[in-house]
Design a protein that fits this description.
This protein is mainly alpha-helical. The chain contains 18 helices and seven strands. Residues 44-57 and 61-95 have low confidence and may be disordered.
Length: 452
């Protein structure tokens, strides 16, 4: 047997959900499975009196003369009756055998739909080795799947596989006369199908017996999946495609593969371009386009949705209210309180996107800050002005250059000057332009250290 325990697949989330599922499986085993009551069924458990009756009727009783004689009323012993003053038959209660609570947690066949069993049967196990084996595979497969998509989505997928597979099995076994199934292996095989699609080139560190000696080998995930799927298909075929453990495994695989494929195609999982489709197409890594267009379209749709929601939250205001709000900003600038003016405008723009800077207010604020020699604060405001308005553009660019020179950033100043179209300058502006260039070159020649 190949027993995987680790993987080299890139993981981006801790296996919190995987560990949680293992803990829940162990709790279920201790609570409901350790005494074997999950396997008790009224169709297979016989009352001890029924066993005695069958022996008597079939002539298999080694001591029939001393045996109890059964009739429709119960059982009696002739010798005992002679010594019993009351005489007559002795009635013996033979209550019907009932299922244990644990037995009701398995997936029943031929008894219709039992929705709670669609989940509970995936946490029941027939023995300690059944539990340990399943938990080993759940651990390593969960590492890959949860490591790529995170805990909430992983748990949703795992339980989804268990539920869909259970519904399918109860439907297929609708007319069965008896039987049930239990165990996590169906859902785990679903995870195996997903792992094979998402990380076929990655490897499992696997414990294996080679030449009667334990060894550790690395097996590509696609090869590992191929081995286990082939083994189960062969054994299912040898059983004439009857309901069996192999059939349950393949049914879980049949649920998991479409889920893994759909999530890949829709861009819900990032396989770094090393998924099975990219490998098949020979476009691995950065060349892969699998799911990227769908993910990009979904992100764009989400941004548009958020914008519509933000627009719906905007409280409509009248023209007079807009003017009053803007006037508060103007009054703060005129009073020399530039910090308050910027805070007011920031709050207005956040709550009412239509209330952006007025050209006159922004220019007035820049002028006030220049008088206070707050050059660091002036530069981003000038950038906002140039991005929003075209009037006074050249003078604002010149002002930006002067701020850069005042901050001893001559190279940045020259960068601003290069954005000016000299053909549109007046003679006076050209003269100013030359002086600014000369000042910048002089600072550079003096070895000014420029900090960003």
């Amino acid at each position: 047997m190949l027993i995987p325990y680790s993987t080299d697949a890139p993981l981006y989330h801790y296996p919190i959900g995987t560990v949680g599922l293992i803990i829940v499986n162990v709790i279920f085993y201790i609570a409901f499975c350790s005494d074997g009551q999950q396997l008790v069924d009224e169709h297979t458990t016989k009352n001890p009196f029924v066993v005695l009756l069958e022996q008597h009727e079939n002539g298999n009783d080694p001591d029939r003369e001393n045996d109890l004689i059964f009739d429709s009323h119960g059982a009696h012993d002739p010798e005992w009756e002679e010594n019993e003053p009351l005489g007559g038959p002795i009635l013996i209660e033979t209550p019907e055998v009932k299922r244990s609570f644990a037995r009701h947690l398995n997936l029943d066949f031929g008894e219709g739909y039992k929705p709670w069993q669609w989940v509970t049967n995936a946490f029941m196990h027939a023995g300690i080795m059944h539990l340990v084996g399943n938990m080993i595979f759940l651990w390593v497969f969960g590492l890959v799947v949860e490591g790529k998509i995170g805990t909430p989505l992983f748990l949703t997928i795992y339980l989804g596989i268990a539920i869909v597979q259970s519904i399918a099995i109860q439907t297929c076994m609708w007319f069965a006369t008896e039987g049930f199934s239990l165990g996590a292996s169906s859902a785990i095989f679903g995870l195996l199908g997903i792992v094979a699609i998402w990380a076929p080139r990655n490897e499992f560190d696997t414990f294996v017996w080679l030449l009667f000696r334990p060894s550790i080998i690395e097996i590509p995930i696609m090869v590992f999946a191929g081995i286990y799927i082939s083994i189960n298909l062969v054994f299912w075929w040898l059983q004439n495609w009857q309901m069996s453990s192999e059939a349950l495994h393949i049914s879980g695989l049949a649920v998991g593969i479409p889920i893994g494929w759909l999530m890949l195609a829709k861009g819900y999982v990032d396989c770094e371009g090393y998924d099975i489709v990219s490998v098949w197409q020979g476009k691995e890594g950065k060349d892969s386009q699998v799911g990227r267009d769908a993910a990009k379209a979904r992100r764009k749709k989400q941004r548009e949705k958020e914008k519509r929601a933000a627009a719906a939250d905007i409280v409509p205001v009248s023209a007079d209210q807009l003017a009053a709000m803007h006037n508060q900003v103007t009054e703060a600038i005129q009073a020399g309180n530039c910090v308050l003016a910027q805070r007011l405008q920031s709050e207005l723009s956040r709550n009412h996107p239509q209330l952006q800077w007025r050209e006159s207010d922004l220019r007035l604020l820049i002028s006030a800050l220049l008088q206070q020699k707050e050059y660091l604060q002036v530069c981003p405001l000038i950038e906002s002005y140039l991005a929003s308005f075209t009037t006074h553009r050249v003078s604002m660019q010149a002002t930006m250059t002067k701020c850069m020179l005042a901050l001893e950033r001559p190279r940045a100043a020259i960068g601003v000057l290069k954005t000016i179209d000299q053909a549109t300058l007046s003679p006076a502006q050209r003269e100013t332009f030359k002086k600014l260039v000369q000042t910048a070159q002089q600072q550079i020649a003096e070895g000014v250290v420029e900090f960003q």
